[in-house]
Amino acid sequence: MPPKASKSKEAAPERPILGRFSSHLKIGIVGLPNVGKSILFNTLTKLSIPAENFPFCTIEPNEARINIPDKRFDWLCQLYKPKSEVAAYLEIHDIAGLVRGAHEGQGLGNNFLSHIRAVDGIFHVLRAFEDPEIIHVDDSVDPVRDLETISEELRLKDIEFVDRRLEDLEKSMKRSNDKQLKIEHELCEKVKAWLKDGKDVRLGDWKAADVEILNTFQLLTAKPVVYLVNMNERDYQRKKNKFLPKIHAWVQNHGGETIIPSAVFLEKNLVDMPEDEAAKYCEENKVQSAIPKIIKTGFAAINLIYFFTAGPDEVKCWQIRRQTKAPQAAGAIHSDFEKGFICAEVMKFEDLKELGSEAAVKAAGKYRQEGKTYVVQDGDIIFFKFNVSGGGKK
Ligand code: GDP
Fold this sequence. Notes:
With 394 residues, the protein is α/β, with parallel strands linked by helices. The protein has helices spanning 37-46, 71-80, 109-117, 143-175, 179-196, 208-214, 233-238, 244-253, 264-272, 275-285, 291-301, 326-333, 335-339, 349-355, 358-363, and strands at 26-30, 63-67, 84-86, 89-94, 121-127, 225-230, 259-262, 304-310, 314-321, 341-348, 368-370, 380-386. The protein has a domain at 4-15 and 323-386: Beta-grasp domain (Ubiquitin-like (UB roll)).
């Protein structure tokens, strides 16, 4: 019988995460026109997992699914030599360019903003390359101004949403004394003041109960952002770009999220080369593709993690949202696993790697049995035990 995990191993309850509760989360590419979004998206499409790997769902043309590079997964596949290998992936949506005034319907404004509402996080692409041939919608290259433009559009759209919600709530409050209406109204007033102050919702210190209400709104500025700075290859190679320090300073003052320097032209050229040629090019020019970092950072930014199931039949990554408890994680595999959940037998990847086999992990007393309240951690290797109504057991 595996040892029971001690109570102290169970993570303290964290504040609920802003955003949708789902394991099917996606990130959208956002930015002004002519910053390099399409080239980036086309490059990602070429790196996509083939559609036939998703037989039961349609993959839209504006959607790319890219495997998450992970040495742990590669190692597990080496160990088990399984018949089937299924890595985790990030789903990326191409959201066409946003312009100033979008919240009032400028350009294809409101359409774009509704596409942003449908994703769970944002890759914000910034233009930090100069080229007189490529026009900028606002005439000059100035990524900090562009950051202001886009973040303001998103905030204005959120204010519009909150205003509408306030109106609805006020109507309802005339008809009912429901305390919940008042609580929501107060929160909306707070959120509106916060936004009007030029601050994004995701940067607020909201209480758990507030987060639950906020999650019913899907506000645009509540979504996590990763900044992708598109520069020319020379700047990327020498890790210097005249706009980068200013972008860095701006981001530090606005939440300090991750900034990833990239050169989309380089990425495009690399995917168009045979693999060995691309590797040779990178070595000779002392550059590295930014795509693996972009994919991993995007996945973590939208609060996804994965656990492994591993054996000779299959090594598979199961994506779940951070903070998911064992029964719901089991439900990612099959709803019966969740309904009839008995326990999760968990190995830490590091233990398996160090000790070499499942038997050695068991012998070392590191194969643990976890119950319903266990919060699944990234990289756990799990075997679920469950009852089905017929009394079967896996
Ligand atoms: P989008 O409107 O943001 O989707 O931008 P695109 O990906 O269509 O790129 C807009 C234009 O900028 C295209 O003509 C690209 O060739 C050009 N472009 C993108 N990245 C770079 C770059 O790093 N340097 C230069 N000189 N041009 C670039």
